[in-house]
Amino acid sequence: MWQEALVGVEVVLLHASPVYYGLGVPKGDGSAVILIPGFLASDVYLVELYAWLSRIGYRPYYSGMGVNNECPNLLMERGLGRTIERALYETERRIHVIGHSLGGVIARSIAGKHPEEVATVITLGSPLRGTVMHPKLLEAVEIVRRQILENNGKSVLPSCYTGRCACSFLSTLRRKLPSTITETAIYTKTDGLVDWRYCVTGDPEKDFEVAGTHVGLAFNPVAYGIIADRLAAARD
Question: Kindly report the CA angle at 64 between 193 and 89, in degrees rounded to 5?
Fold first, then answer.
């Protein structure tokens, strides 16, 4: 986990990269890109990605769901669901969804639930295949799970926030995406929080490795270049 402290280096490298200024990357077409933050995080730290997407020609949207520490089903019913509806209404075209860490798992579930409305789903260090992560992170997950059960009572299932949950969130996450959706999983083998082997799809045409930290995937200049290419590929 100590390697995650190097995230500051990645931020510096991002600002020094031509990609950050939109040089050498495909330009956007004004379509909507919804950004979803990771576990225990809010939209605030995605400001760099938001601003960059705007610079290269897309229309980015923050998730609007507040802190990512709630049952994903409830998050969808609240701010995030409204953001999706607004993006579809304002752009009148299919949307792109990018999620960091747990946000990527939520993004993948959105694509499974609304395949006809999603053009692209991009995950950044997201454990799509299971929840193998650092023990300290698992402890935090268990604390949040207990809070969810306490705060929501019968509104959530007893197994909420576990891989055993039978809610619609997990069922849509497991659906195979149609070929009309461009799926991308960006990961790093030096991930200090999540086992990178659970962050890939298994399809080499969809999986992209970068060097860096788990947290730094939201600021990684190589990841930004991949994002620009994959968004353009979906359009083409």
Answer: 125
Residue 116 sits at φ, ψ, to 5 deg, of -80, -10
Give 158-181 pLDDT, tens digit per residue. Answer: 665 556 665 666 667 778 899 999
For residue 84, give Cα distances in angstroms to 65, 104, 218: 11, 15, 21
Handedness of CA 87, 93, 94, 95 (dihedral sign): negative
Residue 208 backbone class (left: φ over 0; alpha: ψ -120 to 50; beta: rest): beta
Query: pTM of the predicted model, to two decimals?
Result: 0.88
**CATH numbers and ranges of domains, the chain:** 2-133+168-235 (3.40.50.1820)
The three-point CA angle 179-182-186 to 5° equals 135
